[in-house]
Amino acid sequence: MNKEQSGCTARRRRLNELLRVIGIECQETVELSAISDRAQEIGKNGLFVALQGTRADGRQWAEAVRQRGGYILSDQPGERTFVHPDPRSVYPLLLQAYYDYPALKLTMIGVTGTNGKSTVAQLLYDLFSENGRRCCLIGTGRILIEGENRGSPNTTPDPLTLVRLLDEACQRGIEVVIMEVSSQALAMHRVEGLFFDLAVLTNLKQDHLDYHKTLKAYQQAKFLLFEKLKEKGTAILNQDDPITRCWLAKIGRPVFTYGQDSVNFRIKPIAETWNSLIFELNDHRIETPLAGAFNRYNLTAALACGFALDLAWENMLDFARHARLPQGRMEIVAEHPVLAVVDYAHTASAMEAMLKHWRTMADRRGRQLRVVFGCGGDRDAEKRPQMGKLACLYCDQVVLCDDNPRSEDPNRILAQIAEGCDGRQKIIRERAEAIKFVLDGAQTDDIIIVAGKGGETSLIQDTTMTCLSDREWIERWLRQAGRKETCF
Asked: Lowest mean pLDDT: which of 12-16, 104-108, 318-322?
């Protein structure tokens, strides 16, 4: 797709035409100069969408926008103001219309689920890139456009950032956009007006109850993604996930399932080691350097998407043989003298799947499994004792430490994790010191897991962000101890 074919460019729309998209009739026919929820971007004949957030109220900037000759969309009346009861819900629709619906000109793949989103998204990006498709990935902590890596504070960007990114993708001739779509983004209408060719659901477990309050509300938010499938779009679901199975009949679009009992993409495990998997997928033998039984599912989800978009099986099997995980997902930092792993697991279900794999590998080695982890503040507190219980169930040594306490009392968080432990846990709040403590006590060939932050490079407490990389601290302590032989 080239620029001429894409037709994706921000075009000036008359104010009355744009507002008609959300059911507001007006007589103003001026051509809009801009649309944004950022007041500083709005000048004469621009439209400012005043959003009320948890930290700031956009309505306080309405008068400044009026003084500059702009218009306002708000839930409160005023001069040069158009009233809508819920500006947040319609803001993305206005953006998509203003930018001429860029997502309709792209092949859109949305990936949601409690665990595995980032891994599936990275696999999809690599798979389609290697098969000659120009790709963009929008996901946790990163935005990739043809290898160019930009940071991102959210799993799914805010609506303005997102539509501008999609517009840029069109202008650059991008063909496939892979998006991680979080439950919060769906509930907060960030992806309203977007439509997807493929929607992937990896699994559904307990998470984000701090935001959604109930598991049912969390599930319902996730399934909003399938309402955004294009007319000929396809859903791709993990049939082995019990909650997902309950929703199969409600999708209303063609569905491909994957799993050990699936009729579409049937997984038959054959073998696994600490750094590889072998399994059958229908009639194909898959050999891959990915580790962990759960990555059979993640890789299969990606291959199912490739099949749905007409990639050749021969090419996909070749891809599987050298597939890689995103940074901080089951990442082997050192192989000798200890096996040190950094992983993003920060939910009880992800923690259990990851620790179960490494417990098996530790038993095969006849060595100990040691874990360092904490839980993030201002997030679902119910999972904390669950994760403590799982850590003690699978590990020989458990050390609890800080993990983005944010505005919560770090000691309270650690005490809640400890409620699920069996008394063997040790608390060392300073994360780097906790890592050092475990490495210092480890024996040759022990397996050390540092969990919860993955590839993150900072720790957040209150409003302070401190540079901290689990990988770098592991490398530093092993190097200082003269024990580091291999690093990937």
From this structure: 12-16
**Cis omega (within 30 of 0) for bond into 159:** no
Q: Give per-residue pLDDT as tens, 414-465.
A: 999 999 999 999 999 999 999 999 999 999 999 999 999 999 999 999 889 9
119 is in an annotated binding site: yes
In a domain, 235, yes or no: yes
Q: Does 476 belong to an annotated binding site?
A: no
Task: Determine whether the annotation assigns residue 238 to a binding site.
Answer: no
Residue 114 marked in a binding site: yes
Q: What is the pTM of this model?
A: 0.92
Q: Binding site annotation covers 420? A: no
Q: Which CATH number goes with the domain that contains 127?
A: 3.40.1190.10
Task: Report yes or no on 252 lying in a domain.
Answer: yes
Domain that holds residue 67: 3-85
250 is in an annotated binding site: no
Beta bridge pairs of residue 199: 110, 235
Report pLDDT digits (tens) over 337-361. 999 999 999 999 999 999 999 999 9
| Residue 117 among known ligand-binding residues | yes
Q: Do 345 and 431 share a domain, yes or no?
A: yes
For residue 411, the domain's CATH number is 3.90.190.20
The DSSP secondary structure of 171-182, one letter per residue, reads HTT--EEEEE--
Q: DSSP secondary structure string, 115-172?
A: SSHHHHHHHHHHHHHHTT--EEEEETTEEEETTEEE--SSSS--HHHHHHHHHHHHHT
Was 115 annotated as part of a binding site?
yes
The verdict on whether residue 116 carries a ligand-binding annotation is yes
